[in-house]
């Protein structure tokens, strides 16, 4: 077991909004995150040696990065609560809504090739009672599909958005989430693809003043899935909780790249990603980047990634990065742990009569359960628990009855 | 009826310098309905005895036998031993994050009995056991041993003893780290178990304090991986007054 724990400065001194630091922030670039740009020339075809591409199996992206035009679409089923609308807009309109520019080649290609965007709009002060559920289904892994999405939450609105990906495709998508002042969003992106899908996704979130966002990325299916979850702030007081859950089977590559850009004072980010790996060639990558800009006094950030390696032949990469340009913060820390099953836990459970296989199931159930409870969407929680059970049944625990019900 | 027979048990543990012998031939019989206290200084091998009987993978049995009602315990897996009627209350119970106490208890009970307990009586049984051990009813929703105080961990072990109802309980320093109130609650729990027909108890302790509340039938002094002396409850009084020096010196010779 390897554990890294870092805790950095907790300085409660009040933040000062100085003009100088506000000016300076524009010039500071993250060392780990290339500057966003719509221009494809700023995102050359990667060789695989670039910092942001070195973990990704480029050959298995099956030509997505060549950027061919394609008018294929994913089939879209939508369930909208009253007052929430879904409309087609142009790429120009998406920019005018304040979308966040692409930060890598697939997201730039998606904007260039999608031929317009879909806008999910939650008007100001609307508190949606039901979740928005959008299911996107692909027909075939041969289909190349470009996606461009904007989610907008008006001031003081409140909504839950579940975006589910199923079927198969070669899919690259750019999603921007603009959360107005004081609004509250709970968003889940579920990658429930067939085994041969390739998905390169970028979700970028701008958190308004005093707004709060919970974003959960769940990756179970697909051959290669590479998801960005980026967050930045539009004013002080914004909070972002970025959660993730993944389960890689034999041969699967599941990559999650986080970037919390603290570009405003007194903002918060909290990242928890948990993954399990089983089977030959199962591979997961977690990159957690945090940038604390000079202006971002009084911020608080914590990142955590935990991986449970269930069998031989798996590889989990976990890289937390902190770039800090001011020490005048409440706190910043990260933790990363990748481990096999804990022998002491298994012994404890087995000493109570529980079989070895069932003890493993129980430990894994517990490992994810903590996170699943945080997602905060009851109907989805049950589904996630079932999916974890089903994943587990595939390999490690063939043919076992489930652990005595849910709770 | 239950009889745990330990004969000439020899156990070693792997260290950087190769295997190290810890138990050097332990012979003990816990007869039906009997409570045996094992007392000894730190490092004498008391816990090794408990964990090797329960089947912890860290320990290698190099000789001897352990049988429960004639069945070969050492041939069983860890969970088979528990299903055969053995229970180990641990000195340091292990955290299992995300698994609730109630889920854990029901899973264990189902495994031990071979069928799920009847819901209505089970809920009552669990609540009763928790209440008798002075554990809050919301205890069931907490993750197993996570964030428990030392006392809560030990009381949770004894709640399991009540609910899983084994034939023989091995209590590994269940009294350590308990204040006097918690010690009484835990002792009451153990005594309720002893009152049932034919239950065996092997009580491992460093201190005589718990023996004021749980009266053993037999007391064994454990030194350097062996039983150095055996006697009745009066042996505990002697240890209280004189300590282990006499036995340690004898073992060193």
TrEMBL record, chain B:
Pfam families the record matches: ABC_tran
Coiled coil start-end: none
Provenance organism: Nocardioides deserti
Record's protein name: Fe-S cluster assembly ATPase SufC
Domain ABC transporter: residue ranges: 4-249
Assigned keywords, A-Z: ATP-binding, Nucleotide-binding
Signal peptide (UniProt feature, chain positions): none
InterPro entries per UniProt: AAA+_ATPase, ABC_transporter-like_ATP-bd, FeS-cluster_ATPase_SufC, P-loop_NTPase
Family classification: Belongs to the ABC transporter superfamily. Ycf16 family.
């Amino acid at each position: 077991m390897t554990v890294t724990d870092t805790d950095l400065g907790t300085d409660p001194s009040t933040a000062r909004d100085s003009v100088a630091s506000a000016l300076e922030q524009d010039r500071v670039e993250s060392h780990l995150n290339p500057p966003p740009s719509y221009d494809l020339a700023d995102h050359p075809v990667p060789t695989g040696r670039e910092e942001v591409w070195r973990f990704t199996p480029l050959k298995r992206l099956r030509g997505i990065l060549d950027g061919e035009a394609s008018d294929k679409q994913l089939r879209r089923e939508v369930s909208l609560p009253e007052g929430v609308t879904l409309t087609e807009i142009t790429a120009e309109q998406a920019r005018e809504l304040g979308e966040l520019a692409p930060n890598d080649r697939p997201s730039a290609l998606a904007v260039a090739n999608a031929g317009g965007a879909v806008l999910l709009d939650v008007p100001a002060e609307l508190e949606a009672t039901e979740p928005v559920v959008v299911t996107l289904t692909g027909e075939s892994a041969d289909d190349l599909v470009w996606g461009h999405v904007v989610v907008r939450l008006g001031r003081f609105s409140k909504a839950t958005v579940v975006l589910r990906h199923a079927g198969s495709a070669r899919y690259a998508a750019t999603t921007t989430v603009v959360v107005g002042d004081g609004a509250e969003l709970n968003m889940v992106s579920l990658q429930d693809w067939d085994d041969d899908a390739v998905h390169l996704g970028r979700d970028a979130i701008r958190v308004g003043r005093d707004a709060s966002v919970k974003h959960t990325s769940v990756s179970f299916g697909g051959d290669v899935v590479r998801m960005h979850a980026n967050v930045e702030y539009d004013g002080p007081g914004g909070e972002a909780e970025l959660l993730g859950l993944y389960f890689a089977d034999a041969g699967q590559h599941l990559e999650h790249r986080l970037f919390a850009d603290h570009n405003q004072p007194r903002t918060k980010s909290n990242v928890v990603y948990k993954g399990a790996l089983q089977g030959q060639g199962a591979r997961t990558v977690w990159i957690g980047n945090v940038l604390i800009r000079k202006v971002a006094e009084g911020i608080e950030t914590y990142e955590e990634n935990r991986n449970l390696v269930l069998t031989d032949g798996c590889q989990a990469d976990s890289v937390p990065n902190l770039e800090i340009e001011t020490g005048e913060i409440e706190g910043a820390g990260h933790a990363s742990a990748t481990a096999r099953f804990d022998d002491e836990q298994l012994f404890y459970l087995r000493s109570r009569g529980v079989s070895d296989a069932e003890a493993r199931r129980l430990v894994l159930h517990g490992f994810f359960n903590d996170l699943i409870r945080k997602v905060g969407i009851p109907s989805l929680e049950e589904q996630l628990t079932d999916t974890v059970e089903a994943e587990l049944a595939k390999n490690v625990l063939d043919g076992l009855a489930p652990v005595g019900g849910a709770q | 009826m239950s009889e745990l027979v330990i004969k000439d048990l020899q156990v070693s543990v792997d260290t950087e310098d190769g295997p190290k012998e810890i138990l050097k031939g332990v012979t003990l019989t816990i007869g039906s309905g009997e409570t045996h206290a094992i007392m000894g200084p730190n490092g004498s091998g008391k816990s090794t005895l408990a964990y090797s009987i329960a089947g912890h993978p860290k320990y290698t049995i190099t000789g001897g036998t352990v049988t429960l009602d004639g069945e070969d315990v050492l041939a069983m897996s860890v969970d088979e031993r528990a299903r055969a009627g053995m229970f180990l209350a641990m000195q340091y119970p292990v955290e299992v994050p995300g698994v609730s106490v109630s889920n854990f208890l029901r899973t264990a009970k189902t495994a031990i009995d071979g069928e799920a307990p009847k819901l209505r009586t089970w809920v009552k049984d669990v609540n009763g056991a928790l209440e008798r051990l002075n554990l809050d009813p919301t205890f069931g929703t907490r993750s197993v041993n996570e964030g428990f105080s030392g006392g809560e961990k030990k009381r949770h072990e004894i709640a399991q003893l009540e609910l899983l109802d084994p034939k023989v309980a091995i209590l590994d320093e269940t009294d350590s780290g308990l204040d006097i109130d918690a010690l009484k609650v835990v002792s009451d729990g153990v005594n309720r178990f002893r009152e049932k027909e034919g239950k065996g108890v092997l009580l491992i302790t460093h201190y005589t304090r718990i023996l004021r509340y749980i009266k053993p039938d037999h007391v064994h002094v454990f030194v350097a991986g062996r039983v150095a002396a055996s006697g009745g409850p009066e042996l505990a009084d002697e240890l209280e007054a004189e300590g282990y020096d006499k036995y340690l010196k004898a073992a060193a010779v």
